[in-house]
Amino acid sequence: GGTTKDSASNTSGGGQSAAAADPNAAVKEGLKIAFLPKQLNNPYSDVETGGGKVAVEELKGEYKLVGPNDASASSQVSYINTLIQQQQDVIVVAANDPNAVCPSLNQARAAKIKVITFDSDASKDCRDAFINQATTEGIGQSLAKMALEQAGGEGEIAVLSATPNATNQNSWIEVMKEELKKPEYSKLKLVKVAYGNDDDQKSFQEAQGLLQSYPNLKAIVAPTTVGIAAAARYISSSSYKGKVAVTGLGLPNQMREYVKDDTVKKFALWNPADIGYLAAFAGANMASGKITGAQGEKFTAGKLGEYTIGADGEIVLGPPTEFTKENIDQFNF
Amino acid sequence: MTATSLEAPPSKRFSLGGLLKTRELGIVLALTLLVAYTAIDNSRFLSGQSIRDNLLNTAILAVMATGQAIVVITRNIDLSVGSVLGISAFAVATLMSNNQDLPMIVALLAGLAIGAVAGLVNGVLVRYGKVPALVVTLGTLYIYRGITYSWAGGSQVNADELPRHFLTFANDSILGVPWLVLIALVVIAAGSVMMRNYRIGRELYAIGSSPPAAELAGIKVARNLLTAFVLSGALAGLAGVLYAARFGTVDAAAGNGMELNVVAAVVVGGVAVFGGSGSVWGAALGALLLTVIGSALAVLDINQFWQQAIVGALIILAICADRLVAVRIARSLRKRDAHV
Amino acid sequence: MAEANARPRLEVHDVTKSFGAVAAVQGVSFPLYPGEAHALVGENGAGKSTIVKMLAGVHRPDTGTLRVDGADVDFAGPADAKAAGIAVIYQEPTLFPDLSVAENIAIGNQPLTRLRQIDRKEMTANAERLFRRLGVPLDPSRPARGLSIADQQLVEIAKALSAEARVLIMDEPTAALSAVEVERLFAVVRSLRDEGAAIMFISHRFEEITALCERVTIMRDGKHVATELVADLSVDDMIRRMVGRDLSALFPKQDVEPGEVVLEVDGLSREGVFKDISFSVRAGEIVALAGLVGAGRSEVMQAVFGVDPYDSGTVKVHGRRLKGGSPRAAMAAGMALVPEDRRQQGLVMELSIERNVTLPRARKLARLGLLFGGTEREAAETWTRKLQTKLGRLTDAVGTLSGGNQQKVVLAKWLATGPKLLIVDEPTRGIDVGTKAEVHRLMSSLAADGLAVVMVSSELPEVLGMADRILVLREGRIAAQLTRAEATEESVMYAAMGQEVSV
Amino acid sequence: MSDIDLDQRPANNRSAVLKSRLTSWDSIILVLTVLVLIIASFTVDNFGTSRNFTFMVLDLLPIILIALPMTMIIVTGEIDLSVASTLGLTSSMMGWLWNQGLSIESIIPLCIVIGAICGVVNGFLITGLGLPSLAVTIGTLALYRGLAFVVLGDGAVADFPWNYTGWVTGTIGDGAVPNVLILIVVLALIFGIVQHATPFGRSLYAIGANAQAAHFSGIRVARTKFWLYVASGAVAGLVGVLWTLRYSSARADNGAGLELAVVAAVLLGGVSIFGGKGSLPGVLGGVVLLTALQNALRLEDVSGQALNIVTGSLLVLSVLLPNVTSAVRGNWHRRKLRQASATSAQ
Ligand SMILES: Nc1ncnc2c1ncn2[C@@H]1O[C@H](COP(=O)(O)OP(=O)(O)OP(=O)(O)O)[C@@H](O)[C@H]1O
Ligand SMILES: Nc1ncnc2c1ncn2[C@@H]1O[C@H](COP(=O)(O)OP(=O)(O)OP(=O)(O)O)[C@@H](O)[C@H]1O
Ligand SMILES: [Mg+2]
Ligand SMILES: [Mg+2]
């Protein structure tokens, strides 16, 4: 006998009974909104939370930023616990593990704290809404398209991803692979997915390894800001410069140098500051009772305008921006 | 025990020295096998670019391993090297990005100085505070990293903020040898000669071999230990500059967790963790071996998930091989005594 | 011989040193003259080694001064003392196991080439020269690790000689040496003395003092008792002043009728160490293992007790065969081994006296598998009192005791196990005459009570005085078996060296 | 300060012993721990609540459990850096076995056995082959973590049964006492008694202070160490299970880096890294102190970076302070003696 996977009942409990939304309620002032990114001192999430800070100031709330030094779920849980103790009104969190943070997030929700996830979602049943930077399809397709352009329509390409278990990257890569099956991509061959663990040095070495194993590589697609920067840096300083293209998702500030020296022709990203901004507004609206996270509810997010909540409490930010030599100087993040 | 290999009188044909040398020979052999196997699988592993990449990757680790070997030989350990690398890399990168015209030599000196100060703090706490090195440097591992984090916050120095000459330094070469590799070679050679042929080196071995006896022998233990820690710190600081130049992007987490790699390199290189034996160039070979293992696994296209496990197994294998050699030496010593 | 009015090379003037509440040295003064050998005698714990360490710059006197050539000096560390021309051989060897023997000798003082690099050839040659002078067949290029205590002591001596010091201080250098080596050492020391060096010599063997020294300083309980010319004192005088009372006979051996065979060793061999060792010991018997240093006596007994492995042969206790390589099995069979090196093998210095005494018996003292302080203290109390150990409290670390009292703790530790067979390896090494007599009396009475005793000793008088039977080992083999009646200094030495000797 | 304490002989006068016992680090740390707990409950908002108590217990659970065998290992003069990787491997295995459809009731003991096997490998390499433990466990640190990734790859397994995950995070009768506290108390008692009141425990100190003398006293040094590694592995396995259940997430990277935190806590508790010295109460105090301090500082919004600095400083100070005070006291004593002799000479 005993409890097995099949027999286990997984009603993870927690949560709160959804109260009815009151679209006419005013957004409260003085709300305590705390941001908990995957880890502190990551330039990308600094930009995101920076946007959050601006929004909280506009909302006249209390902004707080906490986070671990390492991107592990366990340290995040300690911080969630602390935030519960401090009775925050909203926790905006980028989950390091969709499940590991769940019990704590549910404890938070039981303590009447609204939980908004951004960047990397937690399990659906332990958060109130998720700010999606772009749809998975959108990004996957855009990656495939850029790869095709950069490789010159044919040849071998490789992906340099973050950690092997990064939820976002894996789903984008999935979409990309689907896309590659289409006839217009038939001459493109994805030879390998390598993982740099979002660690600069490791990514650098993985890029190196890719070129040694696949000398005919035409392009490296790195759907992570750390990976694309490392790959670009390696290519720009090696004999492969000009022969192998680098593209993917990157931060304009980090990539400016390589765009200008022609190692990188084009890459994409959404505006990360807008994610934090939108998350803060979603949280404030929810804590004020204007929305509950149900599909179809609408709210206004300051300068970004009106948003509608999609299925499963997802709020999509919008399409990614593509950066090239021509427009990169207009961005500073 | 290599220490003794050097004294073997050349007159003796089958001397202990010859046997003892196998300690480093083992690593060389393992390295050769690995490279040969990988090269057969993928000949590009022996291409100029690949060799260059491997040497460049080894350089930073080898510089740190040199300092670590010196400290471990004195029966101490320096776990703070990863954090010292971080603080030095960030400080120097900030310095260079704010002063675009500073020459490279200033960057190198700044890194050395920052590292030396960090090492001095370690040394003073170990020697005058009478706190075991493992405790001190585990503590300063946290402290130095904490300082870097507090200072850097989330900021990052990006490649485009750094002066051109600083970035190209990592790749520029003279006579085909990249600067980075050259610096590492100079550091290793200087370290080896110091430890083998100079009084200070022999005294460091003596201290590690028996600390109380060193006091009684009138060796200036305090001065020597401080020197060892300052050297280890300074070399970690130097490694920080090289890191910044090579990777271009520096944030507060640079070198995080590197201490275990460095200690692994030193141990694999045949330096006994109980002090008194081993050599600097052995440690450097250990660094090379570890780096080559890493890149060979990538080239051999071994499943990402297996790589770490294989590295661990190889480390253990290296220690076992080393032990085998030590046992053989002990046996030959006993045999010789029996004839006396 | 130095004239009485010559200026002392080194002077100890009214020095005091205490450790916590222990006043190790209190107001001691004496001079060391050039060209004279000066003995320092006193019971265990009298403070001799403490004086040595002050002269060596290891300890700084609490009060009082040291003078070199009439000028006050204040040594901040051993380096200062070395610079002042003082070379020291410490009671415990202080070698660097990983360095070669030649490097050990030269450390801090290596010959340099023009580039200030170490001149290895010269260094090895120096070591070879010193060894030739001492008559030691040691390879200068081998590491010091694995040297026997005696060889370590010889390297220490070579090291002190190499310093070409003006003052040579030797703290029990002969404790581990056999007669032949002692004689060689003395010859070298005498020639140094004649070259004008001041020598300070510490030993518990009075025949050595009368053979080497001109002047003697006697200490008792940290205090200065007398400084006299050796010629003016008889050995009995010395002993009386040292211990403050008369001593009874040194070797109080009682005659015992041997009982049944307790230990039977048959054909025991270990490659490269010893070969084909067979002997037996009966209850009530004291069997001595004699031989030159390095003959393999300790190794044999360690293999018998199981701390070392052996390749072939058998060990039987009370007729039952003993599992090899297991000290636990040996202990269960009623064996006890008091090892030769008490610091490394006999005691755990950081642990308290009581923990040390009860270490081998902890499992017997436990109730329901649990240990509580009371039973341990009682057991320790009983045995340290029986052996008249001089100690503060049982909870003090054993390392705070003087060498001789540490040796008593080792004895207490093993006697407390109530053994049937007691193996003692150099039981009186570094022990003062008073204690030595006690140890001998103890062994003798234990044997009288039916204990079988195996004694390894390098001291011939002890061997001859105590043993019922003597096994002489040479190069790992039994060279002779002598009964008490057959044994003389000559016959034992003859067997040990394999040739005629003139002692 | 010129005196070199070559024999490392501790002072043996009566009051000094008493003083050194009262001022020994293990007692200081216990006092300090109580102080921090009291002060924090009064000055830090939300620190003294029962919910925060539960959070704190859950946070210190893995460190305190792994520290129990680690204390013994360090007392014998060895070290085990592979514990966190063992934890990761058992966590992975737990996920994998769960996916294979085994029942949780059989998976849990199986995982503890897997941990123990990791310990057996360490123990064999260290005692059987006589390799240095620092080097070996750095090797197995990489090996076990690598195997964890081999087993579970990038995936995570999350659907563990609610009644088990809930037990780990829950409290007794929904009161203030967390369920896992029972586990901590029971294991701490067992390890405490074994270490401090059994012949086995005694032998650990002897081994750490002088392995050769221990061998000569009939203590089976190698075997003793071997079993310590097995215990360490088994406990790490158990913690792997608890970790997985607490976060209801089996992952290969669970607990990464925990080894240094455990070693830091043990050293903070007054255990000598050279072996032969230290007590379990001191270590428990060390773990609680560290966790409570971090918890309080976090509630006060002190950043994680500053926590790093606090942890590191505490670690160094824990050994530095006792040394400095004893040195100062010694100097003072000597000066008094000199003065006394100077005045008596007049
Ligand atoms: N570092 C120390 N700490 C505490 N007590 C000490 C220390 N050194 C020596 N003592 C004590 O000082 C006294 C004198 O010791 P010392 O070693 O000088 O005796 P000794 O005359 O050399 O004896 P032995 O003949 O046994 O070697 C002893 O009571 C000893 O316990
Ligand atoms: N650790 C060791 N490694 C190698 N050889 C050793 C070791 N210890 C002792 N030997 C050798 O074993 C032989 C006997 O050793 P040892 O000197 O202990 O004998 P002994 O007769 O007991 O002398 P002692 O008077 O010193 O007790 C010698 O040849 C010695 O060099
Ligand atoms: Mg003495
Ligand atoms: Mg012997």
UniProtKB/TrEMBL annotation, chain B:
* Keywords, comma-separated and alphabetical: Cell inner membrane, Cell membrane, Membrane, Transmembrane, Transmembrane helix, Transport
One Pfam entry name: BPD_transp_2
Write down the InterPro entries for this protein, in alphabetical order: ABC_transp_permease
Q: What is the predominant subcellular site recorded for this chain?
A: membrane
For membrane topology, the record states: Multi-pass membrane protein
- Transmembrane segments in this chain: where? 22-40, 55-72, 102-126, 133-153, 173-195, 225-245, 257-274, 281-300, 306-326
The cellular location(s) given in this protein's UniProt record come to: Cell membrane
Question: What does the protein in this record do?
Answer: Part of the ABC transporter complex LsrABCD involved in autoinducer 2 (AI-2) import. Probably responsible for the translocation of the substrate across the membrane.
PANTHER family linked to this entry: ABC TRANSPORTER PERMEASE PROTEIN YPHD-RELATED-RELATED, AUTOINDUCER 2 IMPORT SYSTEM PERMEASE PROTEIN LSRC
Q: How does it assemble?
A: The complex is composed of two ATP-binding proteins (LsrA), two transmembrane proteins (LsrC and LsrD) and a solute-binding protein (LsrB).
**What is the protein's given name?**
Autoinducer 2 import system permease protein LsrC
Q: Which organism is it from?
A: Paractinoplanes pyxinae
Lineage of origin:
Bacteria, Bacillati, Actinomycetota, Actinomycetes, Micromonosporales
UniProtKB/TrEMBL annotation, chain C:
Q: Which UniProt keywords apply?
A: ATP-binding, Cell membrane, Membrane, Nucleotide-binding, Repeat, Sugar transport, Translocase, Transport
Q: Which GO terms describe its molecular function?
A: ATP binding
Keyword Repeat in annotation: yes
InterPro entries recorded: AAA+_ATPase (IPR003593), ABC_carbohydrate_import_ATPase (IPR050107), ABC_transporter-like_ATP-bd (IPR003439), ABC_transporter-like_CS (IPR017871), P-loop_NTPase (IPR027417)
> Locate the ABC transporter domain: which residues?
10-246, 256-500
SUPFAM superfamilies according to UniProt: P-loop containing nucleoside triphosphate hydrolases (SSF52540)
The record's listing under SMART domains reads:
AAA
PANTHER family according to UniProt? CARBOHYDRATE TRANSPORT ATP-BINDING PROTEIN MG119-RELATED (PTHR43790), D-ALLOSE IMPORT ATP-BINDING PROTEIN ALSA-RELATED (PTHR43790:SF3)
Q: What is this protein called?
A: Sugar ABC transporter ATP-binding protein
Source organism per entry reads Paractinoplanes pyxinae
Its lineage reads: Bacteria, Bacillati, Actinomycetota, Actinomycetes, Micromonosporales
UniProtKB/TrEMBL annotation, chain D:
Concerning Pfam families, the annotation shows: BPD_transp_2 (PF02653)
> Can the keyword Protein biosynthesis be found in this entry's annotation?
no
**Where found in the cell?**
Cell membrane
Does Cell inner membrane appear among the keywords?
Answer: yes
Q: How does the record say this protein sits in the membrane?
A: Multi-pass membrane protein
Q: Which UniProt keywords apply?
A: Cell inner membrane, Cell membrane, Membrane, Transmembrane, Transmembrane helix, Transport
The UniProt transmembrane annotation reads: 27-44, 56-75, 110-131, 176-194, 226-245, 257-275, 306-328
Give the signal peptide range.
none
User: Which PANTHER family does the protein's record reference?
Assistant: ABC TRANSPORTER PERMEASE PROTEIN YPHD-RELATED-RELATED, AUTOINDUCER 2 IMPORT SYSTEM PERMEASE PROTEIN LSRD
Q: What is this protein called?
A: Autoinducer 2 import system permease protein LsrD
Q: Which organism is it from?
A: Paractinoplanes pyxinae
